[in-house]
Amino acid sequence: MQKRVSQLFAFAHPVSLPKLRDPSLLKTQCYVNGKWVDAKSKKTFIVDNPSTLAEVSKCPEFDQQDTEEAILTAQSAFTSFRKTPARERARLLRRWHELMMENMEDLALIITLENGKPLADARTEVKYAASFFEWFSEEAPRIYGDTIQASNPGCRLMTVKEPVGVCSLIAPWNFPAAMITRKAGPALAAGCAVVVKAPGEAPLTALAIAELGHRAGIPAGVFNVITALENTVEIGKVLTTHPVVKKVSFTGSTGVGKILMNQASSTIKKLSFELGGNAPFIVFDDADLDVAVRGLIACKFRISGQTCVCANRIFVHASVYDTFVQKVLEVVKTFRIGDGLDSETTHGPLIHDRAIAKVHEHVQDAVSKGARIVHGGERLTEVGARFFGITLLADMKPGMKICDEETFGPVAAFFPFETEEEVIRVANETEVGLAGYFFSRDNKRCWRVAEALDVGMVGVNVGAISDPAAPFGGVKQSGFGREGSKYGIDEYLITKMIMTGIDT
């Protein structure tokens, strides 16, 4: 592959491409029934590096027939895997976790090559992703039912938890490792078998995880990974309508979620959807501004703003507005934008041209309606085709696209506000409700605002809220169901009631 070039505006220096310590982790085939297979059509698609647009690899372009065979493979494996003792499932997941940690550098490199995020962020993701296998290895032996006192004294009543069956797991590209393990961990802990649809933009990480699962001893057919780019819609329909599939877990946009939900209704499947967000980030006049700045930096600009929980609308009390924006600007000026393989890079590219176009559209719309560019605001074509400058927009007002649409890019939009009642009302004026953040040193206000925000997750004086022990998910059109935490495994279980008559 060609040399990568990383630069911050006029500054540039060459980047050498590190090699995988274990080249066998870079897979170019799908993983079905414990084997590496091509699409029956032999068609492939190119996976490129968003930093350089250079080809990283090719992956199979699976179609409907390929997908149906993977589903039937999972069904066959499920019949035996569901009977595997919980402790054995726990040991398998624990070993998988250990292998991910042992191969962290290679996994991080693969993530950076196909996703573009800096290596430091990729390493953090690998640790986070592996933590879900560790967490759910500990939950597997703790799947408990209940004994219930029946109304009829001649009966005894109990419940047991059973795996739901074959699960379709549809994962996004922004966290190509963690969004798979956060779904597969609880599914396998519960005793389910899965078919993972890897993101077409970044499928190589999923395939590497599959290889490590193979080494960990995951039985053939229990964990399957399929890839496609052009056939994504076709495959999505199969995964959501096939009668063998009993559960669908999807992370992605609200628009796509509605389509998949409608398709899944044809066979009444169990669903958990983590969809789009439009997170408010509120800085009150009594906040510790330095803490709030650190929280915003962690929340807004992680992987160049391409996260579903990153701040989209930043509300700052008028009395501290100018000071806060200036403090954020001082930090942003230290960022280095470039190839994620460069150790000095803090922020990488956007994933594709559509992402660049949307960010540019949001900035232009805001400026045309009176917003002021404090920093950035332009494509960085001198860095590469998919780079957009870290952008700060001040004097934001209602009616701008950023108010209603998730930007999913490196744009921090600052809105001034005067009262607590006003900012809560505006923060809740959105059809989605995934995450929300606010900063205040008033204990009573903290409880009031946390309970008043219409979101599934609240960060109080903290900007990073993801944790394997925390239930992740939203309300309204941000979806339903929870991932991670003790609640996450329930998404892959059904409750069966057993009543026994004791009178003869």
UniProtKB/TrEMBL annotation:
EC number(s) stated in the UniProt entry for this protein: 1.2.1.16
Biological process terms from the Gene Ontology for this record are: carboxylic acid biosynthetic process; gamma-aminobutyric acid catabolic process
Pathway recorded for this protein:
Amino-acid degradation; 4-aminobutanoate degradation
Aldehyde dehydrogenase domain residues are: 36-498
Looking up Pfam families in the UniProt record yields: Aldedh (PF00171)
> What's its catalytic activity?
succinate semialdehyde + NAD(+) + H2O = succinate + NADH + 2 H(+); succinate semialdehyde + NADP(+) + H2O = succinate + NADPH + 2 H(+)
Please provide one cellular component term from the Gene Ontology annotations of this protein. cytoplasm
Question: Active site located where?
Answer: E274
A single Gene Ontology MF term assigned here is: succinate-semialdehyde dehydrogenase (NAD+) activity
CDD domains from the UniProt entry: ALDH_F5_SSADH_GabD (cd07103)
Q: Which UniProt keywords apply?
A: Oxidoreductase
Name the family the entry cites: Belongs to the aldehyde dehydrogenase family.
What PANTHER family does the annotation carry? SUCCINATE-SEMIALDEHYDE DEHYDROGENASE, MITOCHONDRIAL
Q: Tell me what this protein is called.
A: Succinate-semialdehyde dehydrogenase
